[in-house]
Amino acid sequence: MSQNRQDPPPGRAKAPTLIDVAKVAGVSPITVSRALNQPEMVSDKARAKVTAAVEKTGYLPNMLAGSLATQTSRLVALIVPTVANPIFAETVRAITETLERAGYQTLLGISGYSDQQEQDLLEAILCRRPDGIILTGLQHSEISRTRLKAAATPIVETWDLGEDPLDALVGFSHYDVGRAVGRYLLEKGRRRFAAVSADDRRADSRLAGFTDALSEAGATPVATRRLATPAKFSRGRQAFAELLDEGIECDAVYCSSDTLAHGVMTEARYRGIDIPHRLAVIGFGDLDFAAHTLPTLTSVQINGAEIGLRAARHLIAAMSGTSTSPDPVRIDLGFSIIERDSA
Amino acid sequence: MSQNRQDPPPGRAKAPTLIDVAKVAGVSPITVSRALNQPEMVSDKARAKVTAAVEKTGYLPNMLAGSLATQTSRLVALIVPTVANPIFAETVRAITETLERAGYQTLLGISGYSDQQEQDLLEAILCRRPDGIILTGLQHSEISRTRLKAAATPIVETWDLGEDPLDALVGFSHYDVGRAVGRYLLEKGRRRFAAVSADDRRADSRLAGFTDALSEAGATPVATRRLATPAKFSRGRQAFAELLDEGIECDAVYCSSDTLAHGVMTEARYRGIDIPHRLAVIGFGDLDFAAHTLPTLTSVQINGAEIGLRAARHLIAAMSGTSTSPDPVRIDLGFSIIERDSA
DNA sequence: TTCACTAATGATTGCGCAATCATGTGGCGC
DNA sequence: GCGCCACATGATTGCGCAATCATTAGTGAA
Description:
Two copies of one chain form a homodimer. By secondary structure, chain A is α/β, with parallel strands linked by helices. The first copy, chain A, has twelve helices and twelve strands. The first copy, chain A, has two domains: about 130 residues, Rossmann fold (3-Layer(aba) Sandwich); about 130 residues, 3-Layer(aba) Sandwich (Rossmann fold). In chain A, the strands form three sheets. In chain A, strands 2-1-3-4-5-11 form a six-stranded parallel β-sheet, sandwiched between helices. The first copy, chain A, binds a DNA duplex through helix 2 and helix 4.
């Protein structure tokens, strides 16, 4: 008894512990622990006494201590590039909700599309010994990969589909999205393409797919604008205005997100460019407003909530040790082009 | 040694501990601890040995144990109603970013505008003994209030300004916003008002302020539509369509968010209703797109990021014990009406 | 050289809980 | 009435770390 022996309680009362509850209930501490965690192991009488004592003392278990003893934190680390994008917000919501129902809590990290930032977050988060980890994308720093492998914790990488996952994988192929969009526009008879794309890794993948689809048909984009994240409406509008001011002539604009597409369409309307007759515009994400712009926006639908749900479900199974199948899981949720009026 | 004595290491290697590092470094565990936490207390030579050993073993401190020993978790609980609303997303980003810079991590809870959900989240989160708590709004269940007071942890309530805060308060008056909007529209000569508002508490406050402003001028809204959260574009558009179908005649629509306003404007355009001549539309939030809709959207600007920043800063000060001023902090960040073309 | 003093390091203990092992306590059959 | 067994309960210990106290090495002045 060397520390915390300030003779009378110093100022504010300390939180009651299991022992305090036990004293009030007139049972041993371990009985309290069992009454709370494995109620079926305890007699009705004891359980009633404990419940009353918990109520009376306002006891809340200290999970720091519990986690240390059990070596399980019931904590899941979640790292996303941003929450400003509604589609990631949906994933975050689905994940926290699903995990919470299973008794896990979510430690959120926002990496801002930076690998270094992700690494720093990861290092800090791993110190809390999460039971599971959900990451966005497949790209991580070498140090992060090493750390993650050493942690021997279930991991789900989301929002992408590619080679060499750390563990499980839930997403879709961005390259294929871009390719499909390229083919779609070609089929619609478009021939002169501009691209307005965010500069994050997945948007680049889509852009690469798009460009490749064009190449296969002997076409190339007349202009490509890569914009710094976040991909805001205003940046999309401005980027397209700049392209027009530079004298670019195109009959289709590929956009890496609906938000950018919305900006592009607004600028087009502002300049009296008829969509879709003179110009096709296609977005990505199928956000809420896509079906309601004028004209309505053709877009690529992907399901952020579903990604979160599946990722969380898989993680829960892995953490509970139910599915000890060692083969890595790979879930392709695909995508679909929603044809509307803009393209 | 009663537990964990599976004779050889069972399967996967356990994470190295302070003791492992100490053995490798050839010093005592406490020296390792000091080298990491109070490097100035340790000789250069010892620190070098420790650093090398940490590197070699891939040691990551176990914060569960550290927090238990120090009685500080460096964890902050954050509860927001949603992250789907970009303006809350900004607050979340600002908070996590600011806290992280100060060495705190954020435990995110999404309450979905439900007091019960908030209470459940809070109970779970308090078990992790956060050093600080950031809540949205002033309304909490009675049990939550009791728990929070007992926790004796610094708290910041955000996004509102009202009576009887638990501790500190960072926000603005929603009632005043509604009132200001009402007066603004009256000044613009509008006389027949409709309202499309979300059914969350703060939107209701704004609506009340709006209605009161009208009453003072002898007016009342001809129609009010309260929509379930989330306040999506499509719901706003549909609500306004319904109002029109019911034969409501109005020359101004008050909307509790820009997203709803965007929907209302789209429906108006769709029906050929001229904005602003036949109809004024005003939103709330001044989201990114507000300056770029056709016509541009008059809105109320509030700064979600600033709210997060100020809340986090205050909390950091309170947690570090720097500002032990017992008087509760109350920061009014105000708002401003951004006049554009729609009203 | 010796002593007082500081800086650096180490040994021990407890944070609050749950896992393990040990001990009751009652019910049932014979 | 005795012994066995199932069940309920309790005592002890360790999870990994840092706070406290104790000790050693190192420094300079008298």
